[in-house]
């Protein structure tokens, strides 16, 4: 039940946007074990002045205007090893499919409880029992 927000430049081609979207979903499926069909994503394109990053770099990593910001909200409880594998799978997959530098792929994870979701009808489908 993850929700992925993908923010990128308005210059990115529709094919690359699709490849990025598919890579995030495939990584959630193969690395994290998300069920098939559980693909909820919000993709937002931005002008160059709306994607802000440290021009001088951060933590020894330098960035370019091709930055891709990915934020995934998912259920709490995933191990550090799973999170590391997810980061790697997303960065490797996006790089392989689009040529975007791995340095330009920033990923943030937000852990929430199962009851913090409503998938429609104003209901808490995963209410505590």
Q: Could you please describe the fold and organization of this structure?
A:
With 129 residues, the chain is an alpha/beta fold. It has a single domain (3-116), classed as 2-Layer Sandwich (Macrophage Migration Inhibitory Factor). Helices cover 29% and strands 23% of the residues. It is built from two helices and four strands, in the order E-H-E-E-H-E. The chain has helices spanning 14-32, 80-98, and strands spanning 3-9, 40-46, 68-75, 105-112. A four-stranded mixed beta sheet has the order 2-1-3-4, with helices on one face. Helix 2 links the parallel strand 3 (68-75) and strand 4 (105-112). Helix 1 packs antiparallel against helix 2. The longest helix is centred in the N-terminal third of the chain and has 19 residues, at 14-32. The mean pLDDT is 96.
List the helices and strands and how they pair.
Layout lengths: L2 E7 L4 H19 L7 E7 L21 E8 L4 H19 L6 E8 L17
Parallel strand pairs: 1-2, 3-4
Antiparallel strand pairs: 1-3
């Amino acid at each position: 039940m993850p929700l992925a927000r993908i923010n990128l430049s308005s210059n990115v081609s529709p094919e690359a946007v699709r490849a990025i979207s598919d890579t995030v979903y495939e990584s959630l499926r193969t690395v994290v074990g998300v069920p098939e069909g559980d693909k909820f994503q919000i993709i937002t394109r931005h002008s160059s002045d709306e994607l802000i990053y440290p021009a001088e770099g951060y933590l020894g990593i330098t960035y370019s205007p091709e930055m891709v910001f990915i934020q995934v909200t998912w259920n709490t409880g995933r191990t550090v090893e799973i999170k590391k594998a997810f980061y790697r799978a997303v960065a490797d997959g996006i790089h392989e499919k689009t040529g975007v530098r791995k340095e330009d792929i920033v990923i943030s994870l937000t852990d929430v409880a199962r009851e913090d979701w409503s998938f429609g009808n104003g209901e808490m489908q995963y209410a505590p029992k």
